[in-house]
Amino acid sequence: MGISLMASGLRERGKTKRRTAIIRAAHELFGERGYAATTIADIAERAEVAPRTVTGYFPSKEEIALVRFTEAADRLAHAFRNHKPDESALDVLTAWLLSKHDSDDPDGIRALTRRMYKTNPNLRALRAARMEEAVALGAEALAKELGISPGDITARIASAAAAAIAIDILDNTPDDELDDAVATVRVFLQAGLGALTARRRGGEST
Q: Using an 8 Å Cβ cutoff, are 69 and 127 in contact?
């Protein structure tokens, strides 16, 4: 039994190591050569695995490129679904940003990922779709706080703007400047939400 569990643990660690190697190799190559010019075979060679191993972990280049962002977006959606009653939508967003998502980054992939996005604007555009669930849940949380319909434009605009700002923070803010950046974002979003809410209430009173 103990030997079986040990073997299972070794297999899982081996899978994690190969998966990390594939992501690292792909993000390096996408940054160096460009997304379009990089093939699955190139990624396999850099990661020192077979091409079918790459496709066994990821069905496409796009999935490899966006995997870390997708995982981060999923964590944000989960945070909105499970936030505490006394946590505002802005609390959830700022906590998510401050978590750094990949604080455990022994392979240095975070820097490679940022370079990849700077080199490939088309990949930056694809991320919006990966944020759809989190944006919808954020709008729902905001609407509940404000006592308005989840489909109200105030909640939708605020949530979409917050998502766009969050992506910019992830792309362009060095880790040692993250705290200040998030504090600035929070002030900005609070002011913007206040202005949207005041405008909406003013329209209702006329």
A: yes
What does the alpha-carbon distance between residue 86 and residue 26 come to, in Å, rounded to a whole number?
41
Domain count, the chain: 1
Within-domain flag for 206: no
Instruction: Please state, in angstroms and rounded to a whole number, the distance separating the CA atoms of residues 99 and 12.
Output: 25
Residue pLDDT, tens place only, 152-174:
888 888 899 999 998 888 888 88
Q: What does the longest C-alpha to C-alpha distance in the chain come to?
A: 75
What would the two tokens of residue 198 be?
């005041």
Return all residues near 113 (Cβ < 8 A) that are at least 6 apart.
27, 68, 69
Distances (CA, A) of 179 to 6, 14, 73, 95, 161: 41, 35, 20, 10, 19
User: Comparing C-alpha atoms, which of 79, 77, 72, 75 is closest to residue 114?
Assistant: 72
Range of the domain at 186: 2-201
